Amino acid sequence: MKFLKTIAVMGLIAFSLDAALAQEAAIRKNLAERLPVFSKIDEVSKTPMNGLYEIRVNETEIFYTDAEGNFLLQGNLFDTRAKRNLTEERVEKLTAIDFGALPFKDAFTVVRGNGKRKMAVFEDPNCGYCKRFERDLQKISDVTVYMFLFPILGPDSAEKSRNIWCAKDKAKAWTDLMVRDQPAPKASCDTTVLERNLEFGKKRKITGTPTLFFVDGSRVPGAISAQQVEKLLTEAK
Predict the structure, then answer these.
(1) Domain 99-235: top CATH class
(2) Phi and psi (nearest 5°) for 40?
(3) How far apart are CA 26 and CA 209, in angstroms?
(4) What predicted TM-score, i.e. pTM, was given to this entire model?
(5) In this structure, which topology does domain 2-95 adopt according to CATH?
(6) 152-206: per-residue pLDDT in tens?
């Protein structure tokens, strides 16, 4: 009898898997036929909400649909009982960055003290919040900051970023501009790094400056105080 029950349970599991695969195939087929932009879906998965499925495209973009792909929603899914934004949590998980996997060759370093602690920052040279943040950052010691130039505020941002990247001493040129309001002299060199940084930011949903990353993978969008940076550096050890 026990053997027969085991066989029955296995049969139900197999049936459930087949049904789930068939449903996913139906969603993929219907959406691709009706909306060509959904011809390449990365993942289809159930959500905690009955009858609602998550559709993931372009690595980190989230949409929702019904069991047959007849309707499509874009927006935030909230768990009202737990008071959680499930969509935001999912996107944060998808865009989390392994600090060691950052493209460090496309950054320059600013080292203070022994440089033991590490963080990475994406900044635009025309960003007022970045300038305020940089002035606060002068109070932090024993840190290595990997600085990624991220010119998103217009053509002038790209020009200033080019002059900084092509400077003989990038760290000094950056600090002179952001802390002392002394622009870097005009310079030219290979600046395809700026395009790579923008493309990396697009894939990783970096939409504003400054955006900070710490060694534990945590991300902070926006300028924060020296005290907050100190706290996050300590926690990220």
Answers:
(1) alpha beta
(2) -120, 95
(3) 41
(4) 0.72
(5) Nuclear Transport Factor 2; Chain: A, (3.10.450)
(6) 999 999 999 999 999 999 999 999 999 999 999 999 999 999 999 999 998 888 9
